């Protein structure tokens, strides 16, 4: 079996070609997602720094509930887990 067949798990050259092409698209999408997460972290930091400088707290739980609801409506229950991970990345663990 050739190396590309082995890497993709496919059993034919045709399937291996389709899988390799789709994986390239996934890698490109993941790069964009990572860039958006980093952009989200930077914007979130601006908000948190402004609130703390004004005498407020880093965390705003009512806003976090809105964010969790937004992801849950769009993606179902796993969306809540995704939003919790994003919030942890943006404001640290609480
Ligand atoms: O919207 C805010 O007030 C933020 O501070 C941003 C953010 C977020 O990353 O979405 C981060 C921390 C807060 O607890 C709530 C939400």
Automatic annotation (TrEMBL):
Enzyme class: isomerase
Domain of life: Bacteria
Record-level Gene Ontology MF annotations: chorismate mutase activity
Keywords, sorted A to Z: Isomerase
Enzyme Commission designation: 5.4.99.5
Annotated SMART domains: CM_2
Keyword field contains Isomerase: yes
Gene3D superfamilies (alphabetical): Chorismate mutase
Keyword Isomerase attributed: yes
One Pfam family cited in the UniProt record for this chain: CM_2
Stretches assigned to the Chorismate mutase domain: 13-94
NCBIfam families found in the cross-reference section: CM_M_hiGC-arch (TIGR01808), PRK07857.1 (NF005894)
Name assigned to this protein: Chorismate mutase
